[in-house]
Amino acid sequence: MDKIVQVRPLENYRIWLKFSDGAQGEVDLSDLAGRGVLAAWTDPNVFNAVRVEGGGIEWPGEIDMCPDALYLRLTGKATRSLSGDPSILRAMLEDW
């Protein structure tokens, strides 16, 4: 699995990510904001407190996101850990 090595919060529920394989860019998470535990993001201080943790990212309150799903959003490609198992990839896409 490619790990997230850097993250920066941006405006309008977007983040900039860099992965261990060099892939980098912006990911728009605005479609998730306000849903379930992500309602916490309505406080800009919470959203802006995003940090790298264990190869993924997390926010205060133990809110985290799957690095593989973020990689897919960023690049449109599955990571090496998912490329051999289409059932995992399908399940991730259904969750988004």
Write up what this structure looks like.
The protein has 96 residues and is of the alpha+beta class. The protein is built from three helices and six strands; from the N terminus they run E-E-E-H-E-E-E-H-H. Helix content is 24%, strand content 28%. Strands 1-2-3 form a three-stranded antiparallel β-sheet, with helices on one face. Strands 4-5-6 form a three-stranded antiparallel β-sheet. Strand 1 (4-9) and strand 2 form a beta hairpin. The mean pLDDT is 87.
The amount of helix comes to 10-25%
Number of spatially distinct domains: 1
The count of β-strands is 6
Mean pLDDT across all residues, rounded?
A: 87
CATH class descriptor = Alpha Beta
In what range is the share of β-strand residues? 25-35%
CATH architecture: 2-Layer Sandwich
Within the CATH hierarchy, at the fold level, what is the topology?
Answer: NE0471 N-terminal domain-like
Q: Give the topology string: H per helix, E per strand.
A: EEEHEEEHH
Tally of separate helices: 3
Shape estimate: globular
Please name the fourth-level CATH homologous superfamily: NE0471-like N-terminal domain
**What Rg do the Cα atoms give?**
13 Å
The secondary-structure class comes to alpha+beta
Strand order of the largest sheet: 1-2-3
- Catalogue the unreliable spans: none
Describe the biggest sheet? Answer: 3 strands, antiparallel
